[in-house]
Amino acid sequence: MKQIGLALLALSSFALGQGSGQQPPPQPKSIQGLAVVSNKPTPNDMYCSGFITTEKVPENRFVAGGWFSPEQTHYAGPTDRVYIYGAADLKPGDKLHILRHVKDPNHYERFKGEKSAIRQVGEVYFERGYVRVLEVQKNVAITVPELSCSDIVPGDLAIPLVEREVPVFRSVKLDRFAVPNGKATGRIVMTNDFDSYVGTPQKVYLNIGSDKGLKVGDYLRATRTYEYAYRDSEFGLSAKAAEVEETQKKAPKFPKNKLSDLPRKSVADMIVLTVHPRSATAMIMTAYEEVRVGDGVELMDTTDAPQISSANEPK
After folding, report:
1. What is the Cα–Cα distance from 52 to 212, expressed in whole angstroms?
2. What is the DSSP string of 121-158?
3. CB 22: neighbour CB atoms within 10 A?
4. How far apart are CA 256 and CA 226, in angstroms?
5. 291 in helix, strand or coil?
6. How do strand 219-224 and strand 296-299 relate by DSSP bridges?
7. Is beta strand 185-191 parallel, antiparallel or unpaired with respect to 29-30?
8. How far is 223 from 178, CA to CA, in rounded Å?
């Protein structure tokens, strides 16, 4: 009977939705609900998001293998033992951040000039987590994973783990049609794991960083103009379809040279996790729709936005 009741309820809801003839406006997808548990990013957010940098990352220390080498080539669990070569100066208790210097296997550009835009801001590194040194023999450290973002494999780089500044979430209002505010602007040039579309709480790489005054904890809005959408080689395909109904008589057409007159959209907001000379890594907080590689970003004014309190904090 309970299952029948649920089915009837579902059918009633469906009928009501069909009868109205209108769909409710899209609601933002937000991770701000996580504030009931924590008011700041998790260790996974802070040490698993990756980055792009112009700064030189040392390659003299790297993963050589593990306890079950050569049969086992992927390591992630707390029972795994990972061997780090180039560890003569390390000691038990030291922690190493595991990075992977990556290249995009996709040859297709998500926006015109994408590859050039990435080269201008530096080399791309994905973060695999961090390990703790158990002991050192000769030039090899025996380590155990303490935070695993993904599998660690031979050839991944190991650098000293540096504790990062952890920002605090703010209660930010996202204006769908915010006009340009004159603050720093840039673009999403890439995402973690080479995704083309992202949402809450995924990570994006921006082509602005400390060179434009960005700081950890800053908020930015992701923006998209209709001029960009119409002229994009992929997303602009819809513009080639007929827009009028067959019952319309001599319907006026909006001139394409006036696309810049249409309001700019704010599709999401994001918080900056790490900053480099020409780039920054940010986490999507609230998204009205999918965020695309190539979307613009603009620094927001959050001076009056209160910090979100954790439920674990005393009141």
Report:
1. 15
2. H-EEEEEEEEEEEEEEETTEEEEEEEEESS-B-TT-EE
3. 7
4. 10
5. strand
6. antiparallel
7. unpaired
8. 9
Residue 254: the pLDDT is 80
Percentage of residues in the chain having pLDDT higher than 70:
82
Provide the H-helix boundaries in the chain. Answer: 2-20, 43-47, 114-121, 226-231
Instruction: Give me 286's structure tokens.
Output: 């609230």
* Side chain identity, residue 311: A
Residue whose tokens read 């921006």 = 206
- Nearest Cα to Cα of residue 208 among 98, 78, 121, 300: 121
Residue 69 burial (CB < 10 Å; 0-12/13-18/19+)?
middle
- Asked if 98 and 129 touch (Cβ cutoff 8 Å), the reply is yes
What region does 35 belong to: left with phi over 0, alpha with psi -120 to 50, or beta? alpha
- Which structure tokens are listed for 99? 């990075």
Say if residues 62 and 86 touch (Cβ distance below 8 Å).
Answer: yes
Do residues 129 and 33 touch, judged by C-beta distance below 8 A? Answer: no
Instruction: Note whether 308 and 35 are within 8 A (CB).
Output: yes
Listed in sequence order, the residues at least 6 apart from 116 whose beta carbon sits closer than 8 Å to its beta carbon are: none
Segment 148-196, tens digit of pLDDT: 999 999 999 999 999 999 999 999 999 999 999 999 999 999 999 899 9
Report residue 177 as tokens. 């049609």
Other Cβ atoms closer than 10 A to 156: 20
Could you tell me the residue ranges of all domains in the chain?
Answer: 28-42+166-238+251-299, 51-160
